[in-house]
Every structure is written in structure tokens, then in C-alpha cells.
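Fill-in record for NlpC/P60 family protein.
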Amino acid sequence: MRKLVVAVVVLAGFAGMIGLGALTMLISGSGGNQGWSNCSADLGPWGDGAGRGERDARTLKPESVQIAKRIIDVGKQRGLPPRAWQIAIQAGKTESNLANVAHGDRDSLGIFQMRPSMGWGSVAQVTDVDYQINKFYDVLLAVPGWEELRPGTAAQRVERSAFPLRYHRWEPMAAHLVSVQGDVPGITGCEDLPGSSVLAEQALSYAKGQLGKPYVWGAAGPAAFDCSGLTQQAWKAAGVEIPKYSQTQYFQGGVHVPLAQAQPGDLVFWGYGRDPRGIHHVGLYLGDDQLLHAPQPGESVEVTKLWDGGQLLPTVVRPVADTPAPPGAVPAAGGAR
């Protein structure tokens, strides 16, 4: 029994250190399953990879697939890039499950839950498939710098939902549909992903200011932190909003980058079996195999050497700054505010 207890404590306490050679293999990209680090410069990052996107796409009804195809066709006719198609598909999937519905919050209708009362068109117009798609594209093109935003963030700029993070959920699926239905080859290189920046330096500066503060589960400062509370507040200090919990930060906190390309400020994750669904810890990468994190109860925020223990994920997350919504933006769809 004592051996079992010790084993559990070691696992929960992240104390399973491995040899330098094995860790170097992970960081250099020569070891581990790299499937999670798939990304597409043209289509936007693919979340935890093409596999999830393909699985999600298989759950769509035929009507939804046809609507996705129409979104792509209209985008092509207008000469818009694949990223625009992806943004529209993510918005439609989030708002209506890619269905031309005749109901919604208040007077929201159609694929994008456009509201006639908010100036999106008549009832007949906002339930006409082609009108909706073109209207979505019209508003998207008016968003400053939309091409540089994460697709889900750009969708939020159009929809202006009270739940801005939800559009990221369908990023892999939308990228998969654009690639397959739009005949756009998926690009697996990450050359165009945002690099480290002044914002990352600001996040790390905040985090370093919390060194020595105690770990308290669920805490997000100012006197104590848990692991995800520290990473969330660090990036918030830099003006970048990310979700609270470690697993949600992995899926919705920013752009996915291979561990081999990690830069200071990136979020590093541990999950049982290296599975993103088993994530239980997150910290801030400092460079040179150093990590700043809030470890566990009874310990304090510290800087330590990066470790594996069979749980270090081969993908990190790089939070990306959003540009502020322009003043006087068109009130948006989906019961948008």
C-alpha cells in the first residue's frame, strides 16, 4: 500500500524526472507523437490536429455539409481566401450547427443567427442562405486586420457574442472542411505563426513578480495561484484574455506550436499519457528548458527545469493578442451584443 501511495504522489506531484536525452528528443521534435502539433498557416491552427477535425466533420448532417460547401463556393466566387471560408464555417457551426434554422435567441434566425431588429436584413433575407453568407462576408471584410486574427476571434468580431471563446471549439473541423470541400491542401508548416513579442515579455514579467506566492487550488491571485490561474493572470497583465482552466487553455488559449519551436511566454502542458484530454498542469516557458509555474499544494510559484515524466505534451500554446473591436461596429448576429 505504501508503494502505491508513493507512486500516486509522485505522479500527481510531477516529480517523474527523465534523462536529459529523452527530454531533448521531445523538445527537438525527434520523439513523441507529433500529430497534435499540426497547424496550417493558410487555414489557421488545427487545434489538436486533423484527426479531431475529421471526427467532428463526420458528425455533420448532410444539410450542414451542403451549407459548408455553399459558404466555400460563395467565398470562391467573391475571391476571398480560404481563411475567410474557415471563419464563416466556424461561426455557422457555433451559432446554428450549420443549419438554416427559423428560431433563435430573441429574433435571431438562420445559419449565423442574424437579427432583423439589429439591422441585418428582413426575415426573408436572413433566412436566405446566399444572402446570409454574403452578409457575413461583408461584415467580416469590414473588421480591421481580420486576416491576422485567429479564425474564432475573427468570427467573434462579426457575431459579437457574449461568449467570445466558443468559436475556437470548431477550428479543426472548419479547417478540415475547407481543406476537403474547398480543395485546399492542408499546410502543416508553422512558419507564419506569431513569434514571441513584447506581450510575452509583459506576461513573464508579471509571472516573475509572483515568485514565492503559495499554490492554492482554484486561486488566480493576487495572494495565491494555482497553475492555470497564474498563466491566465500573467497573460491578462499583457492584455491578452485566455480561459481559466489548463485543459481549456490548451484547446482555446491560442495558437498550437510544436514544443521544438517553443518561445518564452508559451504555455507548456502535462497530460496523463501525453493526451490533451488528460491535461492536469500548465506552466510558462522561459526558454533554455526553464519553466515558471505554480506547482501543487504546499509549494509556491517557482522557476524549475522542464521535465517530462511521460506526460509532457509535444505541443505548446502561444496566446495571441486580439485587436480591439472598432468603435461603432455593426451590432451583430446570434443575439450579438
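KEY FINDING: Residues 8 and 244 are 25 Å apart (CA to CA).
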